[in-house]
Amino acid sequence: MESPKHSLIPSFLYSSSSSSSARSLLLDQMLTNSNPKSPSPPTMLSQKNFLIASPTEPGKGIEMYSPAFYAACTFGGILSCGLTHMTVTPLDLVKCNMQIDPAKYKSISSGFGVLLKEQGARGFFRGWVPTLLGYSAQGACKFGFYEFFKKYYSDLAGPDYTAKYKTLIYLAGSASAEIIADVALCPFEAVKVRVQTQPGFARGMSDGFPKFIKSEGLGGLYKGIGPLWGRQIPYTMMKFASFETIVEMIYKYAIPRPKDQCSKGLQLGVSFAGGYVAGVFCAIVSHPADNLVSFLNNARGATVGDAVKKIGLLGLFTRGLPLRIVMIGTLTGAQWAQPLVVLLQRLPSLLLKQRLKQ
């Protein structure tokens, strides 16, 4: 029976099994070997410790649900969400324009062709600053508050009910965290969509933000909050609830040997594949609201009724969906890849260690 204190971050980060311990030791050895002057070999961590080494006490892990643990989750969320979303800015740019002007941007290939012809290669990263800032803020709240709410709901339910209804607790925790995360994201998303879908409106965040406020007022930054919740809450719930199940099924039905007997490369591939498939589900359940977000943030004074009338019910579910599946699948797969998750969670301590050495 799983302890209620275990994080939903994939089990290889907190499991006390021999295979998980071996993975932890291997990662510590790799990181320690990069510093020949390291005074001592890495120490195995107990099952109650999160797999992040303290910068001043290399053998001691960060305690679960301590302030340092929440800080590490928050920082990992900033990097994993902010950097991955910024990387796929070209896909997001074409997707938004396909949603707003399907007559001009008829397909993925023609959409890239139109943008290349009209704006050049540099145009593919228009809006990258609000994307980076917005999804960094969202990731910080999503991962940090998810762990907080998961523990809070687990404590309310008690150990027995937590073990029995852990999936419901995970869903409640992820939904609660996403409500806060989207409040942080919404202003940046509004400016991003306007910059990406209205050429000439602004170059980016620095001039786009004041122009948006002048045009729509401060309240306009949050006119898309309802659809944004409608997009992100189902997305996040599906993301956290489906990944572990998908990975478990891959190991059970597609790979003829146990996980601990698989190579690191194969485990990485399974994690990416599981994340990608989870991302496909995320994209499908959240796509109608994504169309609403793009429409509302592009048109001044637009309402949800205007969007439904203009796009149509079928269009809400289908317009721009293939490209969004590619984009969200790639994002989710990258965020759940084992080495990336471990590294991002350890990075705050590693950076501080490096600074202390200097």
TrEMBL record:
Note the segments forming the Solcar repeats. 68-152, 165-249
Which GO cellular component terms are attached?
Answer: mitochondrial inner membrane
Compartments, record wording: Mitochondrion inner membrane
Q: Output the GO biological process annotations, alphabetical, semicolon-separated.
A: mitochondrial phosphate ion transmembrane transport; response to salt stress
Q: Note the Pfam families from the entry.
A: Mito_carr (PF00153)
Q: How does it sit in the membrane?
A: Multi-pass membrane protein
| Entry keywords, A to Z | Membrane, Mitochondrion, Mitochondrion inner membrane, Repeat, Transit peptide, Transmembrane, Transmembrane helix, Transport
Drop me one GO molecular function for this one.
phosphate transmembrane transporter activity
Its annotated function is as follows: Transport of phosphate groups from the cytosol to the mitochondrial matrix. Mediates salt stress tolerance through an ATP-dependent pathway and via modulation of the gibberellin metabolism.
Please state which protein family the record places this protein in. Belongs to the mitochondrial carrier (TC 2.A.29) family.
- What is this protein identified as? Mitochondrial carrier domain superfamily
Q: Which species does the entry assign this protein to?
A: Arabidopsis suecica
